[in-house]
Design goal:
Layout lengths: L1 E8 L4 H5 L11 H8 L7 E8 L5 H8 L2 H5 L4 E8 L2 H9 L5 E4 L1 H10 L5 E10 L1 E5 L13 E4 L5 H12 L13 E4 L5 H6 L5 E5 L2 H8 L3 E5 L10 E8 H6 L1 H20 L1 H16 L5 H9 L1 E3 L5 H13 L15 H10 L11
Parallel strand pairs: 1-3, 2-3, 2-4, 7-8, 7-9
Antiparallel strand pairs: 4-11, 5-11, 5-12, 6-9, 6-10
Helix pairs in contact: 2-11, 2-15, 3-11, 3-12, 5-6, 7-14, 9-13, 11-12
Main location: membrane
Family: Belongs to the bacterial solute-binding protein SsuA/TauA family.
Pfam family, one: NMT1_2
């Protein structure tokens, strides 16, 4: 297997993450079954892979940096990388047939599914759970203390923004998309939120790793709420893997081969956590010219779970929350998952299958 890297793609379409979308539904067709039945060891061709240079995408970082993908995928397979800074850009690239597979957060995947009428993509596996929550200035000790304060989220309509707005609504606070209301929800790029917290522009942040741990360890923030506390079993999807429907239908063996590589990366993370952290940080530094402090990436690692389980029930919950706060029109997620290939690979390994929560 060989690897080719393409340019980093910035967030060109923030509106895709935030705009209400039309209801959609779709059904997994023969592509999912074909991928399950395919022989991944005979795969050949190119997989155009999208991912973010972020620790929440560690299976991609580790798979590429440590050589796990190279060692696991057949020699006739090439991975062509595209690195994104935001989910909407990855969805736009998939719509434009510029990528085949991508690691991505739940809300962009939901929006991509809805905007395409359930015809553009499927979720084929889980990657990462956890790693987000509310951190605050030390002066904030109760929910009521947030009234009149500014709370940062990474992007209007993204996964953490939806979580923050829904939680605030549950606490009885009004918010709007322009920063008004009882609590001013203020979208700020992850790279800039620490400075905004330091200078008092915001007094709270619904942050995702590694920014979550960075704010706690280096900027005097206090953990107010770890989002795990809000989900059954303490697990919620942070990153999963999507595939274009076209690629799933036309290249089932490549899809299965990639999933075998993904599981190998998860094995590496579980068996060699310190090496996996180093590999992730090496890849992040290569992509961004910045290396995470060892303490920050170690803390982030402890706050994340890397898993092939897509945690489908939390995807449904995220969709319901986005609808309730008015950032998404009602959409039917039935058919969004295509887990046949993943479950076949898991069965071949003697591992338990994962559930699509009735959304397959």
């Amino acid at each position: 297997m060989s690897i080719r890297r393409r340019n980093v793609i910035a967030a060109a379409g923030a509106a895709l993450a935030a705009a209400p979308v039309l209801a959609a539904c779709g059904n997994v067709d023969a592509g999912s079954t074909a991928a399950a039945e395919a022989d991944g060891s005979t795969a050949s061709g190119t997989i155009r892979l999208g991912y973010f240079g972020n620790v929440t995408h560690a299976p991609a970082l580790v798979g590429l940096e440590s050589g796990v993908f190279k060692d696991t995928l057949p020699s006739a397979v090439t991975i062509e990388e595209t690195v994104f800074n935001a989910g909407p850009s990855a969805i736009e690239a998939l719509f434009a047939d510029a990528i085949d597979v991508s690691y991505i957060g739940p809300n962009p995947a939901i929006n991509g599914w809805a905007q395409s009428g359930g015809q553009a993509l499927h979720i084929i596996g889980g990657s990462t759970s956890g790693g987000a929550g509310l951190v605050v200035d030390a002066s904030i000790t109760t929910a009521e203390d947030l009234r009149g304060k500014a709370l940062a989220t990474p992007q209007l309509g993204n996964t953490q923004d939806v979580a923050a707005r829904y939680w605030l609504k549950e606490q009885g606070f009004a918010t709007d998309e322009n920063g008004g209301g009882d609590v001013s929800v203020t979208p700020i790029d992850n790279a800039e939120v620490a400075a905004a917290f330091d200078d008092g522009t915001v007094q709270a942040a619904w942050a995702v790793e590694p920014r979550y741990s960075d704010l706690l360890l280096k900027h005097g923030a206090v953990e107010f709420l770890n989002e795990r506390e809000l989900w059954e079993g303490g697990e919620f999807v942070t990153t999963h893997i999507i595939v274009s429907k076209k690629f799933l239908d036309e290249q089932p063996a490549l899809v299965k081969a990639f999933l075998e590589g993904h599981l190998a990366a998860l094995d590496f993370i579980a068996e060699k956590p310190e090496e996996a952290q180093t590999a992730s940080n090496d890849r992040i530094e290569a992509l961004t010219d910045k290396r995470l402090d060892d303490a920050v990436i170690a803390a982030a690692w402890e706050n994340l779970t890397f898993t092939a389980d897509p945690i489908a029930t939390s995807l449904q919950g995220s969709k319901d929350h986005a609808v309730e706060i008015g950032l998404l029109e009602e959409v039917d997620l039935k058919g969004i998952y295509a887990l046949d290939a993943l479950n076949q690979v898991l069965a071949d390994r003697g591992d338990a299958e994962v559930s699509d929560g009735g959304l397959g």
